[in-house]
Write a structure and sequence with these properties.
The protein is mainly beta. The protein has a single domain, classed as Beta-galactosidase, Chain A, domain 5 (Distorted Sandwich). The strands form eight sheets. A nine-stranded antiparallel sheet has the order 10-11-12-13-29-25-24-17-22, with no helix packed on it. A hairpin with a 5-residue loop joins strand 3 and strand 4. It is globular, with a radius of gyration of 19 Å. The two termini are about 30 Å apart.
């Protein structure tokens, strides 16, 4: 079923709308036309409760100026581009340097703060559309973007992307949801267990990949067997903010599984994207989020399916350049269930 609720005003004075997708199992997902952001995700815990396992804000104003990208659809390019510039088709394009000398998540005038249009909906899904004009955020070409959220009867939330550019340009979209499977107000996720189907990762110099694709074996990045999120934190300067090279062969299949240590709720992540950025929100300080909750360090974990960071500068990485004859298409599925704790 699909219901709608007012979600509050935008800076332009237009009211945003919250779209609630529900199924017979009691799962409820809220998405909004402000940024096509995902706002809430209530899932059954097997004991009669339906905790909201997604970090977010209570209304549209909270998403304006949100530097954490809670639940955001990030584009045109998720993650970082070194030097805030790149070359496509023999031309150099300069972006905002909003992360030191680099560009992060495409810079100002974020897609997550714009009002998208509803292109279609039914009892199980809603599709948002945004036209990103030529030169938007410094990128070449116009891109028309569709993002569809679909909730299935068996508690699977599908996020499907389609982006058609007018000329060759970078397109690299992700859903920047933060998950806490004990409940969004339950504290940190350090006790969650995580498994990632990735034999390799991309080492970084600072926050930019070196270009190497390295084996995870013997490193803090080896999640091929499920282990606690905090199992190797003492070997890192802070938390995780790293890209994993997924073993999916470009097909939609499960690449990660996260399990809440208090609830036993598990979430599987299936995708055809080549990489997944894992961010443990170690620098979080969100004083008043959804339900008035303060989100502190490690309050959630983002599992961002996408191209590798700075891929445009590393030709050995899968490339994020798309054309009118090769539109961007990608699918990520978040599936939920319960196990004993």
């Amino acid at each position: 079923m699909l219901t709608t609720l007012p979600f509050g005003p935008t800076p332009q004075g237009t009211d945003a709308t919250l779209y609630l997708l529900g199924n017979d199992a009691g799962m409820l997902v809220g998405v909004t036309d402000l940024g096509a952001n995902i706002v809430c995700c209530r899932v059954p815990d097997g004991r009669g409760s339906f905790p909201d396992v997604l970090l977010g804000h209570s209304g549209a104003p909270g998403y304006i100026g949100d530097g954490c990208y809670l639940g955001a659809i990030v584009g045109r390019n998720a993650n970082r581009i070194a030097g805030a510039s790149f070359e496509v088709g023999g031309s150099t394009y300069r972006l905002a340097a909003n992360n030191g000398p680099n560009n992060l998540h495409s810079g100002p005038h974020k897609w997550s703060e714009r009002l998208w249009q509803v292109a279609g909906s039914d009892d199980r899904s809603v599709t948002f559309v945004l036209t990103s004009r030529k030169g938007d955020q410094g990128y070449p070409g116009q891109v028309q973007v569709h993002v569809t959220y679909r909730l299935s009867p068996d508690n699977r939330l599908t996020v499907a992307y389609h982006a058609l550019p007018s000329e060759a340009t970078i397109v690299n979209l992700t859903c920047h949801a933060y998950w806490n499977l004990n409940g969004h107000a339950a504290g940190d996720v350090l006790g969650h267990t995580l498994r990632i189907a990735a034999q390799s990762y991309t080492p970084m110099d600072g926050q930019i990949p070196t270009g190497e694709i390295a084996r995870v074996e013997g490193t803090p990045y080896d999640f091929r067997t499920a282990r606690r999120v905090d199992a190797c934190l003492d070997q890192l300067p802070s938390g995780y903010d790293d890209n994993f090279c997924l073993d999916n062969g470009g097909r939609v299949c499960e690449v990660a599984r996260l399990v809440g240590d208090q609830t036993g709720i598990w979430m599987g992540v299936s995708t055809d994207a080549p990489g997944m950025q894992v961010y443990t929100a170690d620098y979080f300080d969100v004083p008043r989020a959804k339900d008035g909750i303060h989100y502190g360090a490690f309050a959630g974990i983002a599992l961002e399916t996408q191209h590798y960071p700075d891929a445009i500068h590393h030709k050995n990485f899968p490339q994020p350049v798309y054309t009118p004859n090769r539109p961007f298409k990608s699918t990520t599925v978040f599936s939920f269930g319960t196990s004993e704790v």
